[in-house]
Amino acid sequence: MIRRYNINNIDELHAMVNSLKLEHQAKGELLLKDSKAYINQFTLGSLIKKYATPSAFLKIDDKLNISSSIMSMFLPFLMNSTVFKGSGFLTKTLVGLASNKFGKALDAEHLSAIFNSVKSWFGSSKKTKKSQLPQHVDYGIPPDSETY
Q1: pTM of the full structure
Q2: Which residues, other chains included, contact 47 with Cβ-Cβ below 8 Å and sequence gap of 6+?
Q3: What's the pLDDT at 125?
Q4: Is the alpha carbon torsion for 137, 140, 142, 145 positive or negative?
Q5: CA distance 144 to 148
Q6: What does the pLDDT profile of the chain (148 residues) look like in tens digits?
Q7: Residue by residue, what is the 3-state secondary structure of the chain?
Q8: Cβ(68)–Cβ(103) under 8 Å?
Q9: Alpha carbon 124 to chain centroid, angstroms
């Protein structure tokens, strides 16, 4: 970008030089301020503020899902070291591939739903015992009695 100035005398030249110096300083300060703000968004404190919330931790965006990434790495290891411990190489490979795909499909919502359903299986016995108690105890007093 070429600027063209209509300068007729030395006073206009000095005024233009001073205005250009001031403009240069202002742009430099603005660039420094913007670069500090850009760098500050990647400091440890700002990253913790941005990503340490429960919803942001579990799902940063649609492509990066921390809980599914952890499950896709942990689930094959868990399956091969517990359930398929004595299996051969081919079986462990197939189980690893299948559980890796299954782990990627899991996210925080699926994990919490699975946890709640398992919890309801074990917690349902207490609820049934409470629901078996009679709601109204009849002591043999008729409802049209004065003591009722």
Answers
A1: 0.34
A2: none
A3: 54
A4: negative
A5: 7
A6: 788 888 899 999 999 999 999 999 999 999 999 999 888 887 777 766 665 555 554 555 555 666 677 777 787 788 878 888 888 888 888 888 888 777 777 666 676 777 777 777 777 555 555 556 556 666 666 767 665 4
A7: CCCCCCCCCHHHHHHHHHHHHHHHHHHHHHHHHHHHHHHHCCCHHHHHHHHCCHHHHHCCCCCCCHHHHHHHHHHHHHHHHCCCCCCCHHHHHHHHHHHHHHHHHCCHHHHHHHHHHHHHHHHHHHHHHHHHCCCCCCCCCCCCCCCC
A8: yes
A9: 31
Query: 65: which 2 tokens?
Result: 């899902």
Only one residue has tokens 């603005």, namely 30
